[in-house]
C-alpha cells in the first residue's frame, strides 16, 4: 500500500533507504573494492567515478542515508571523526577567525592548538553554552566558522543551536555542530539553523566499536562544501569501502540502539543521584542540569547515552570505582552496544579542564539492572 505520509527516519535507516540492487534484486548493496574506474580517454574530469580517493560507489548509499536523516543536501563519509572535524577548518584560509567552544571533545582543541594556529587560523575559545560570550567573540566579516558540540564532552553542556546559528549568521559566519552524541535520532541541527553537522561515525552511527569513520552533512551544496570535498580528496581522508559498507549495516539499527542507550542512561543518572558516594551527576536529562530546558526543546525522545558522575574522595576514589566495575569496561570511546567507563582527566592530560573525580560513562544497550547494579557495587567500598 502506498501512502503519502513521508516515511519515518527509523524506517529509512532500517531499510537503508529501501535499497534494492537494480541488477539482481539484492537487499544489501555490494562493496566496490576498486580503486580505479574506466574513463573515456581524456575524461578524468567530469561526472562519474574515476578514483577512490575522490569517491567510491560504496559511499553513495550511506551518504544518501546520512543526508536524509539530518535533512541536509549532501553528506560525506570520511576516514575518522577527526577527519570530519579538521576538513571544514582546512577549507578555511590563513587569517580567518573561528570561534570554538572551550569544553568539547579534547582532540578538537588539541589539533587546533597544535596545528591550525600554525598556518594562521585565528582560534578563539568561548565557554560552552554561553551565548553572550559567543556574541561578544564574533568579528563580523572576519569570523568564518563557529564550532560547537552539544551535548558536549564530558560535562554535557548543552548549546542552544538555534540561538548560536542566529549569532553566527548575524556576523556572516557558518555554524558547525558536532552532533556525535545526540545523533540524528535525538537532534537534527540543520533544522535549528546550523550549516554543517559533524559526526564521529565511529560512535553511535556505526554502533559496534568496529569501524573508524566520520561524517559531514551540509545544509547547502555551496563553495565551502566543494572545498571540504576537495580537502577529503587531496588529503586522502577517505574511508575504506569495507568500512563504508559496515557503517551502513550498523546504521540500520541506529534508532533502536540510541533509544535503549538513552533509556539506560536516564535510569542510571537517577540511580546515581540517590547514591551517597556520588557528588554530581552530569546528564542533560536531569531537571537540575543547567542545560535541561534547552535540551528538552532541542532533543527528541531522549538525552543521549552519555553521562558523567563525580565521586566523593577525588581521583583515587574514581579510579578505585572503575577498577571494581565488572559490567562496565574501562575503555575510551562511546556509542557501542557495550557500556564503557573512562577517567577522562587521565586520558586528556594535565591541561584538561575535566575534574579529577569524574568518571565518564558511555552507556550501551545491556539490561538496565545489570548496569545499575554494577555501578552500585563498584561505588560500595
Ligand atoms: C570520538 C569523537 C570525535 C573524534 O572521532 P574519531 O572517530 O575518534 O576520529 C569527535 N567528536 C566527538 C564528540 C567524539 O566523541
UniProtKB/TrEMBL annotation:
Q: Which GO terms describe its cellular component?
A: cytoplasm
Tell me where in this chain the PTM N6-(pyridoxal phosphate)lysine is found: 203
Q: Which cofactor does it need?
A: pyridoxal 5'-phosphate
Annotated GO MF terms: cystathionine gamma-lyase activity; pyridoxal phosphate binding
What GO biological process term is on the record, naming one?
A: transsulfuration
Q: Please identify the protein, giving its name as recorded.
A: Cystathionine gamma-synthase
InterPro entries to which the protein is assigned, alphabetical? Cys/Met-Metab_PyrdxlP-dep_enz (IPR000277), Cys_met_metab_PP (IPR054542), PyrdxlP-dep_Trfase (IPR015424), PyrdxlP-dep_Trfase_major (IPR015421), PyrdxlP-dep_Trfase_small (IPR015422)
Keyword terms: Pyridoxal phosphate
The family classification in the record reads:
Belongs to the trans-sulfuration enzymes family.
Give the source's domain of life in one word.
Bacteria
